[in-house]
């Protein structure tokens, strides 16, 4: 039989096989309550990557690592001189993460490669399935590091020098796990990049849509805040004499939360993921508190205003409490629009499957945001139960995963086979 | 020469020798910035106790340990059948503690024994200088444990089973350090107990008084608070869908602080010494926050009211944020009045040295509070710089230390020699 090569060919992916590979991957680095724990470049993350490589190598694909440990899985096209159509996501997880965040995008890609392989279909352009390094940022800050250095959005020195809580540098973790390759950063250059991902929010579940086309990603700003006061004994020190950094933090955070909740768009987000008291002791006023702030919005101008408010609120709380506050903006990711042609290609693919999909902005940062600066990029979301992710309870319905992989497959084939 | 034995004898203590012994003790377990770190029953605490035992044994005193590791240093009286007059404090410190908290009371006692020894003065009643175990409670909760079980104010099982952060039980730490003695708890029975201590607050420094007579100790309540919400991704989860335990904690703490600061007496105190986020990650809404609350007042009725407010404030904040809150009262120490005769004895001793001392309530808990339930008890305070304690910067002027030891000595001799 001649390989089928026309652009109109429709390939049906195997939703059950996709689900089995998701469950198989979840068994690598299982967390206590049914989630996964594969922090970037740990033993568990590497075990996940090795399993994945066995799967794609069985399809005759070629694996290459770039200098940041990003893994590119190439399925050759009929015209090897053309830039490849890429798709993928990440396999690393949060400390108590779920089975779908990132993993779905990678294994949907695997399912597409398997479906093409078993039907012996070859696309005009080459395909590249990408596994980005350290997307979560839980072990090494900042997040989306691998795609960041690939796209020139993150300084390579900041990437390689990042240290985990044990003082291990990312560069050393890459070497130790043999994940540092020789493909130069920024290569291969991509014709397009598609990323399928769980929504990580409640919108699709609430609207009842099985998928959503993502038109862009909200802006994200990360801050490190240090509040320094005066340690003193809990009993004899009158409230009026205290310089309590923890109550100052509480005061400032409540004020910032009120600002964020008052945002009329409903699109502002405030998260304090870390808060640490130095030398905690129950009958001692702490000397110092360190905390992180994650601030997001779909509108950069509004985000500027909220950031200015954040500084004012913390300064006011610190001033009132007689403590000092030091705020460092660690990271800034602007609002990012995705590629109109690729957005249209997902709409078309969905329509041909009888679906009309809503357009939405992503609330989470994704590797796709970085890649969008160097290649036309789009994302496709599946609903996730109760909008919960970064959590062991994270769940996506098998039929939504399958449908996402199918629409992704259709759009990728159309892109890769276009004249 | 016949020993001098009349009740009217005045003994002058040696302030410089007292200061030297304070500085020598501070050199055991020194902390980075000039304070001390001798957590209860650690190597450093034991080293401090051994140094102290060498000093008192050189004076011919006999050391005995009770079952809780409380160290009783006996200087025999002329009538060995009489209950002893006791004085002392503790040698253990906070993680980053000062050179005076507790240590001053013990080493002022040493200085009194040395002064009596060099003048060969023998009191009618025996004297007992006491070093209580685990006063600070930083390593093993609750605080004032040794005096607590001595006075029957703390269950022995709660004392012995207390675990430190590494899971080491206090009972095992006592055995391992050979500090568990055979003197039954509650013995010896005391005729009186005096405790000299730094104020750990700013009142004496502000009034300019060199000492203060303590008429009682404020009530203290300790709470463990667990706030449980729902972990989720920082980006896509709208504020209205969140169940964020950290922002709920901030909200509740600000409300409680406002209640405490609004107390018209100015005698209410609120301290959050520990606050911990489980599985912290900067782009994840935390699932759970645990924190401690230390609430104090000089009036038990008012403290009851504040405690009721505390429950209401946390419940309201939790309800508003859609999280659950669990509050456990770990410890309750009622307002404790000291012995009127002993208060008068300090007033007399001070007057005979030309001083008129203010009366004050203690803001901190002390071993004296426990002992006051089984023996007439009083405390004497020295000022401390800026009211700061539980801090490496803690400082008491040498002349205040000396004057405190002197007034203490005079009152002890009067008590021990009374008919």
TrEMBL record, chains A, B:
Residues engaged in binding Zn(2+) 1: 90, 101, 197
Domain of life: Bacteria
GO molecular function, one term: metal ion binding
Residues that hold Zn(2+) 2 according to the record: 101, 136, 390
Protein's UniProt keywords contain Lyase: no
Key words of the record: Hydrolase, Metal-binding, Zinc
KW Transferase (keyword) present: no
InterPro entries, sorted: Amidase_Cbmase, Bact_exopeptidase_dim_dom, Peptidase_M20, Peptidase_M20_dimer
Cofactor(s) required for function per UniProt: Zn(2+)
Cofactor note: Binds 2 Zn(2+) ions per subunit.
Pfam short name (any one): Peptidase_M20
Domain Peptidase M20 dimerisation positions: 216-319
NCBIfam families: hydantase, PRK09290.1-3
Entry similarity comment: Belongs to the peptidase M20 family.
Protein known as: M20 family metallo-hydrolase
